[in-house]
């Protein structure tokens, strides 16, 4: 990897991290995932801000999502700070987001 590629990669990672911090909730997903689509709808209906990270578009995202799930890639996977929620489970998301 060249120095310019290293710089570009670092800038991209910093932008990704900033976006994740801004929204608070991060959803690792896939475009074709039915549970991901249901989760998007639920989050939008509840006016919850989130950052969507497609694991098919980023090797770093695949690795991050797999690390959360003991090496298995499972979507959707949600992260809020140090807390996680694997799969679309509205009750767990409510806890995670302190909605109730």
Task: Give an overview of the whole structure.
The chain is of the alpha+beta class and 100 residues long. The protein has one domain: Glutaredoxin, CATH 3.40.30. Helix content is 50%, strand content 18%. A four-stranded mixed β-sheet has the order 2-1-3-4, sandwiched between helices. α2 links the parallel β1 and β2. It is globular. The N and C termini lie far apart (48 Å). The model has no long low-confidence stretch (mean pLDDT 84).
Give me a quick take on this structure.
The chain is of the alpha+beta class.
What about the largest sheet? 4 strands, mixed
Report how far apart the termini are.
48 Å
- Encode the helix/strand succession as letters: HEHEHEEH
CATH hierarchy, class: Alpha Beta
Going by helix content, strand content and strand pairing, the class is alpha+beta
Q: Strand-residue fraction?
A: 15-25%
What is the helix content?
Answer: 40-55%
Give the overall pLDDT as a whole number. 84
Question: What's the overall geometry?
Answer: globular
With strands numbered from the N-terminus, the spatial order across the biggest sheet is 2-1-3-4
> pLDDT under 50 segments (min length 5)?
none
Kindly report the CATH topology.
Glutaredoxin
CATH architecture: 3-Layer(aba) Sandwich
For the record, what is the CATH homologous superfamily label? Glutaredoxin
Query: Structurally, how many domains make up the residues?
Result: 1
What does the radius of gyration come to?
14 Å
